[in-house]
Amino acid sequence: MKKISWSLLMMLLVLMKVNGQDHKSDSLKSVLIKSSSDSVKVATLLKLGFYYQRTLQKNDTAFLIYQSALAIARKKGFLKQEIVCLGQLALVHSKYLSEDTAHLLLAEALNKSRQNHFADQEIAGLGIYISTESGFFNKDSFFTYFDRMLSISRENKLDSLAFMGRFAQSATDMGNYPKALQVLFVILHANEEKKDSEAIENTLYMIAHTYVQTNDIKRAIEYFYKAKNYGDTYPFINIFIHDDLANAYLLQGQNDSASHYAYLSYKLAVKFYGSEDKVYGGVLNDLGMIYDQLGKDSLAIDYLRRSYVYFTTVETQYQNYCITTIGLARYFNKKGMADSCLKYAKLSLGTALDKGFLPTISEASGLITAYYQKNHNTDSAYHYQQIGFEAYKTLYNDESSRQIQNMALAEQQREDDIALAKKISDDQFAAKLRLYGLMTLGIVATLIGIIVYRNNRRKQKSYDLLKKQKQEIDLQKSKLESSIKELQTTQSQLIQSEKMASLGELTAGIAHEIQNPLNFVNNFSEVSTELVDEMNEEISKGNLEDAKEIANDLKQNLEKINHHGKRAGEIVKGMLQHSRKSEGQKEPTDINALCDEYLRLAYHGLRARDKNFNANIKTEFDESLTKINVVPQDIGRVLLNLFNNAFYAVNEKKKLSANSYQPIASVTTKKSDNHVIITVSDNGNGIPEKIQDKIFQPFFTTKPTGSGTGLGLSLSYDIVKAHGGEIKVESKVGGGTELIIQLPA
Amino acid sequence: MKVLVVDDETDVKILFEQKFRKEIKSGELEFAFAFSGEEALRFMKVNEHEAVLILSDINMPGMSGLELLKHIKEKYEKPPPVVMMITAYGDDENYNEAMKLGADDFLTKPVDFINLKEKLKSKSV
After folding, report:
1. What would the mean pLDDT of A231-237 be, rounded to a whole number?
2. In whole angstroms, how far apart are CA A740 and each of A591, A635, A642, A726, B43?
3. 20 to 30 A Cα–Cα from A14, which one of A352, A492, A508, A622?
């Protein structure tokens, strides 16, 4: 959070040491105008540039000044000044323009310094290199440059305090707090010896800041106060001291003090920058975050918005931009303004991903993931969750090493910080460095192991879950399949039981129908035997005329026997066909005969079961009807159902009616164009209109429970449909019912 | 003696005519046939008191034999004809019902013609 403000500060420190005192711009401008010497001009331009850049914070003006200084220096071959100009331009570029250009400029500056053995310039260039953001995040190049800086300064017996300050800052940025503190205390003492109050203040501030990072807030506050004693002299630093003090109190849970110092920090900033609109974005950002933490939402949003404006229009600072935008996202999230939250979280994430700011990536992707989850956009939610997870993994690693190093710090702090720091030689320093390196390596390796293990476990877990889900789905599937199978079995069983039920209804009728023809067969054959005896008698008497008459009767009797025998055979055949499971074949069928046969079966069946039952039967057969192709037992079943229903209906009405009621069931056949129409009617109670459309539904029955399966008409409907015909009902309550079957001829 | 046979099976006519051909020839018995209860009633209305014995099937479409019996016993008081019921269903219920309605005899199918002949002869005496 404090990286940018701190880096600004460090730059100030570095530049001050290298370039000495600053001057008022007016006096510099007058020197510039009066001077005829190009070297003086360049030197003055550089001083003026420093002034604009450092004191006035006007980088665009400083940039122009450095460029004109560089042009003159190059033209005139002022090598040292050229290098300084390149370095300063690189600094401006790295912060406000292009980092790539900054690197190119610096590389040129460093090359020229090295070639010409300009130690001062090389050190300055390396210092700038380290202070650029790219240097920040590249550990290897940082140490390389730092080593080079130290060796040059030692070779040339130069003051290396400034570089040590840079080193301390970078060590903190990399989470190596013990090292940072060691170096900072060395610097502090050196500066105290030199009685350099500004440098002391800076160092105290940095120590305090490092303590904040180690969560030693008590000590942090102590050092902030020490730094603050110098604050009136150096107002720019003072702003951040107050700002950081507010932050430290906040971490300490002392909200009133935090609020107080935040307020003072802002007042100092306004005073320093001249007006409210000119206040540096980093200050606004810090205050926004502090007020957010304090729960002062309206103040927080105000500062965050102004900070956002600053970092989008005035100055580009990636880290601060990310902190501001994530702060805004966090604020809107808290307020339940999901769309605004998403907008700023995405802005923050974009830059954070580009620059590799892990905590911001983690937090921003978390907010975005939550947004998409809420809106059921699973794909996007998953995408951002992955981004967040990757960042978290890396960050987790970093955090752990930081914690472990904090333990090392705690151990070390038992000893006297300053005394220890003074004793540390370069060798010990290097040894420690190696030790820390090894420790870190070990820790990193362990952590990578843990992460890999955790990942594998997570993968295993999700695989197990998937497997379990698949098993469940398979189980459900097989359950469903067996349910369907069961249902199909039940259905066919029901159809069969309906067949058998109607067969049961028929049995009595069939018995009667077989009994009657059998009686005739028996009787006619008996009487024929008698007739043969009689005929023989007449023949022996010579009464041939009488004998002939008897012979005619005998012939008639044999015909009757044959007829009734066939009649019984037909009935048995029909019964067998009716109960047969397999589907019958279509064959040319006499519909009139079929109707007659089943009408009788139905009638006698009912009679057999209910002695009181009786009904008038009317038949009206169209004699012109030719045989049509149907499955006789199927159409027979339909007719049986319709007759049974008709008889049932009239019987029900008769039970409730006066004696004058004459129950009538009738069947008529009629040829009509290409159709045969069979109408079965009764003069029963009729079917109410509201259930007329239900009578063909399976299991629909008006009969008392146990009396009907409710499948009769449903099956009839299916059979007629299967024959390409139609069945419909016409009924009036109190006026009887007509069922009309139309079959293709 | 004139006997009215009531049955919905038309072949009954041929059967009776052959079974009783000797009796018919000798004039001992005379047969008339009706193929439903309704037809039997119409015959009786037209040929009042001609038939002294009625043989009726019980199970017939329309008016059943029992209804016919009830009708005859209620309407024809002096002298009511002899009514013999014939049925395929020789159960107690039918029997009791027939007797309650005043049936003079109750026969079950298949008809024992020797037995029937004797009964008719005893009635005609």
Report:
1. 69
2. 14, 13, 10, 8, 37
3. A352
